[in-house]
């Protein structure tokens, strides 16, 4: 599929991760991707990057409007609190039939639709940080005006940086507590295992190699084996062995309940953000 012309408003870490997928060999975009940045210095970072035309708000206050003027897809990748003003700014410059794609956490599709012309569709997405290495899990939820064909186009766009799960908008908020925040949970577990290794007498460098390598290897095995995490856990746990003894301690801590509480807290904060808190 050849993707329509694209404008990317906001080239922070997530915006750049999405852009990296669009610039992969074999991904065809109709024209250069128009990227807006707040400063000339940030825009200059794209000098010489094939397939990108960078715009700076510092030197051109109309940069956002110029970027979206011919775009079939407009990706809004700014901070949630900036969204309403940005939408008001670009509304009159959007072409009829454009798809506005949000990666702003907590901002409802109805908010987008209220600030945009009725001729424009809205689709909310929630990619996670592994998009940087092409391993994102992106949640996708259409707004009230988005058609099946528009959802398919946006799905194709985000498949350039990983896998896509289509959900309802309410489901998107819940998804964010799992895959959106999930990398941080994994990093916390790696930190804890690293500290345990240091406590066993390994140097920080050795401990990091042991913990990092174990997580990378385990997830690679999970992906390659086609087995469930439960099946692999049982496979590596010998009866009456050391792993079984360690797992008993972890299971006594009731990890399922702990993760349920953690994700409930994340969901509550998502709803606070949506309410402007």
UniProtKB/TrEMBL annotation:
GO terms for biological process: L-proline biosynthetic process. NADPH binds at residue 64. NADP(+) binds at residues 9-14, 77-80. Coiled coil: none annotated. Its EC number is 1.5.1.2. Residues 169-273 form the Pyrroline-5-carboxylate reductase dimerisation domain. Residues 6-106 form the Pyrroline-5-carboxylate reductase catalytic N-terminal domain. Keywords: Amino-acid biosynthesis, Cytoplasm, NADP, Oxidoreductase, Proline biosynthesis. InterPro entries: 6-PGluconate_DH-like_C_sf, NAD(P)-bd_dom_sf, P5C_Rdtase_cat_N, P5CR-like_CS, P5CR_dimer, Pyrroline-COOH_reductase. Pathway: Amino-acid biosynthesis; L-proline biosynthesis; L-proline from L-glutamate 5-semialdehyde: step 1/1. It is found in: Cytoplasm. One of its GO terms (molecular function) is pyrroline-5-carboxylate reductase activity. The keyword Oxidoreductase applies. GO terms for cellular component: cytoplasm. It catalyses: L-proline + NADP(+) = (S)-1-pyrroline-5-carboxylate + NADPH + 2 H(+); L-proline + NAD(+) = (S)-1-pyrroline-5-carboxylate + NADH + 2 H(+). The keyword Cell membrane does not apply. Pfam families: F420_oxidored, P5CR_dimer. Gene3D superfamilies: NAD(P)-binding Rossmann-like Domain (3.40.50.720), ProC C-terminal domain-like (1.10.3730.10). Belongs to the pyrroline-5-carboxylate reductase family. NCBIfam families: proC. Catalyzes the reduction of 1-pyrroline-5-carboxylate (PCA) to L-proline. This is Pyrroline-5-carboxylate reductase. It comes from Cnuibacter physcomitrellae. The lineage of its organism: Bacteria, Bacillati, Actinomycetota, Actinomycetes, Micrococcales. The gene is proC.
